């Protein structure tokens, strides 16, 4: 289980059926920022979690997992981050007009 005190920031969460062990991989993506910046600082956006990007991420990850399942959690984590970067990471970070 993954617990959060800010469910509104959750973009995507779930479990993945893998053949790593008898456990299911659990994941959560959020838009939360975990740094010590002041409240007046600008938000720098590194990822775009629009619906089309998230759908692309889910499809690419699912396709890769079904054709080439990882042997361990490290391989899964590497694949997860690779597909997330390919689908959602911005080429150039942008500064949001919103404040943290």
Describe this structure in words.
This protein is globular. It is of the alpha+beta class. Helix 1 (51-67) packs antiparallel against helix 2. The chain has two helices and four strands. The strands form two sheets. A two-stranded antiparallel sheet has the order 1-2. The protein has a two-stranded antiparallel ribbon with strand order 3-4. Helix content is 33%, strand content 30%.
Spatial ordering of strands, largest sheet: 1-2
Separate helix tally = 2
Assembly state (oligomeric): single chain
From the N-terminal CA to the C-terminal CA, the straight-line distance is 27 Å
Which shape, going by the Cα principal axes? globular
**Uncertain regions: pLDDT < 50 for 5+ in a row?**
none
Mean pLDDT: 81
Order of helices and strands: EEEHHE
Question: Which bin fits the share of residues in helices?
Answer: 25-40%
Largest sheet: 2 strands, antiparallel
- How many runs of DSSP E, i.e. beta strands? 4
Features of the shown structure:
two-stranded antiparallel sheet, single chain, globular, 100 residues
Element layout with pairings:
Elements: E1 10-16, E2 25-30, E3 42-47, H1 51-67, H2 73-88, E4 89-99
Antiparallel strand pairs: 1-2, 3-4
Helix pairs in contact: 1-2
């Amino acid at each position: 289980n993954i617990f959060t005190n800010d469910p509104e920031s959750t973009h995507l969460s779930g479990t993945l059926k893998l053949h790593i062990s008898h456990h299911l991989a659990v994941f959560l993506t959020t838009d939360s920022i975990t740094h010590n910046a002041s409240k007046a600082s600008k938000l720098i956006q590194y990822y775009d979690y629009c619906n089309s990007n998230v759908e692309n991420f889910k499809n690419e990850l699912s396709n890769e997992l079904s054709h080439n399942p990882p042997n361990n959690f490290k391989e899964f984590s590497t694949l997860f981050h690779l597909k997330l970067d390919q689908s959602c990471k911005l080429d150039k970070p942008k500064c949001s007009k919103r404040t943290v």
